[in-house]
Amino acid sequence: MYPRPIIEELAASAPPLAAAYLDPARSSLHVTGRPVPDAGDFAVEDWMFAHADASPAVAAYFDYLRRAKGRFDAVSQSLGYWNEDASHSLGHDRWSVGWGGASLLSIAAALYTLRSYGVGGVVLECGVFKGSSTACLSLVCEELGYPLVAADSFEGLPDGEGHYGKGDFKGSLDEVRANVEKLGTPQAVRYVKGWYSESLQGWNEPIALLWVDVDLQRSALDVLERVFPSLDPNGVIYSDGFTKGVDFDGDRIMLTGGEPAGFYRFFQDRGLDYKAKPGGAKGLAMIVPRCKADETILFVEDKFAYLTGRLGL
């Protein structure tokens, strides 16, 4: 899954390497029905590095990734503080930074690719905490022209589940606004306050990318039940809460707990096609709806790690 101008240059320069990205029958730009290289085959990535000096498209993509990583790191470093409202039983909400730095880079890359293919809509973030991911994403959303909608109760979790308790991960709206104004691009962000079962009711704005970090199974269901129909056919979902070897069964989601259980039940109960795989950072899943049984998700975590590693990110 790489930006369109890069794939077009790849097709002209090395057609066999581009074949998987040019399947005319694929259900979305994130998948292919054609054979894909093995995870350890970095021929496409090596081609990009070999052509970076001569290709404006590759150079622009690399510069964007470097810029995003630097800006995300700055947010994480500046936003770190001890949370006076911490209440999680294992202390997971003691530090103010949730997602930031390199952990969001695959989402930033996905947004760049979506924009290159002309996919419109908003970026909907569900689960904000203190605003670290909101601040980071606001920076790239502003650059790419995507409105960012940050939805949260701003009162902590609505209920208990597993090791989570009611009120955990609280960040007030005033606190989040202040953090985004200090470290992000506030003009790119719109806030939606309330419990998802109410605040997202009647949602009808097209969504390019849905980012879910809600911890609870019920909250994941509340989000999906209300906004999934608005996801663009080429849109994609990223979710927190997924562990390799636990929450994935091949390219399917296991019925475990938390967010994975919410996704499992949503797709299973409705008989909806999808595929899922690790999304490029610890705990992150990439979920592609409407993916057919004979299709493969183009994003490969090891390939993205190879790319960003060679870039020094």
Q: Short summary of the structure?
A:
This protein is of the alpha/beta class and 313 residues long. It has helices at residues 4-13, 15-18, 43-51, 56-79, 105-116, 132-144, 173-183, 196-199, 217-227, 258-270, 301-310; strands spanning 31-32, 122-126, 148-152, 189-193, 207-212, 231-239, 248-249, 252-253, 274-278, 285-289, 296-297.
Describe the protein's architecture and organization.
The protein has 11 helices and 11 strands. By secondary structure, it is an alpha/beta fold. Strand 2, helix 6 and strand 3 (148-152) form a beta-alpha-beta unit. It has a single domain (4-310), classed as Vaccinia Virus protein VP39 (Rossmann fold, 3-Layer(aba) Sandwich). The mean pLDDT is 95. Helix 4 (56-79) runs antiparallel to helix 6, helix 5 (105-116) runs parallel beside helix 6 and helix 9 (217-227) crosses helix 10. 39% of the residues lie in helices and 15% in strands. It is globular and about 55 Å long.
